Amino acid sequence: xxxxxxxxxxxxxxxxxxxxxxxxxxLGPLPARAASAIASGKVALVIGNSAYxxxxxxxxxxxxxxxxxxxxxxxxxxxxxxxxxxxxxxxKAINELLVASKDAETVMFYFAGHGFQLGGRNFLVPVDAGxxxxxxxxxxxxxxxxxxETIHERGKQTLVFLDACRNNPIPAAARTVQDAEGLAQIExxxxxxVAFATEPGKVxxxxxxxxSPFATALSATIESPEFPSPT
Length: 231
What we know:
Elements: H1 2-25, H2 30-40, E1 42-48, H3 61-74, E2 78-83, H4 87-100, E3 106-112, E4 115-118, E5 121-124, H5 134-140, E6 142-143, H6 144-151, E7 157-163, E8 192-196, H7 213-223
Parallel strand pairs: 1-2, 1-3, 3-7, 7-8
Antiparallel strand pairs: 4-5, 5-6
Helix pairs in contact: 1-7, 3-7
């Protein structure tokens, strides 16, 4: 049963990341694609949080961040990689991304780690968050819509990939019956592409191996020189 669930999740993820694959396809074959990326300016912030201090650890996000980072570097992206990032680390990394992407045409943000929805908004969790009460959530986490608003600029392609809904990290004492699982659907403006590791409101899998199904499918797809047609 577990193997069938993993296979189904991997298939769904592969269909999801095809949209990004076709975006990269416009840059041509892989060797030319890497050169084009360097010339045109493509910057990515990749975060993988596994070792949480006050909430459950996760097995694969740090590995996933390394996998995606390596793939993007081979494609010519300027990659800012942060592993087990605290709140301060993520703030600094976002500022670094803003500086690095000043003249870029494409900005990418990838996050693997704990994430959850609250009141219809999505929040990403640094490793030093405690989440002991609802009042602390806004101070200890990062609202996804605010991150997108910060990194998106008119005329730039903004790509967001979230492998961040493996379980609900909010302690039971801080939850209410209205709190939903997974991440919430998000509306984006022109030039912004957001991909989740699973459907809104669902919990995805950490993966049976060293990487999540989402990271594995994303890495394989974006580095493939040819892409199948969507069905």
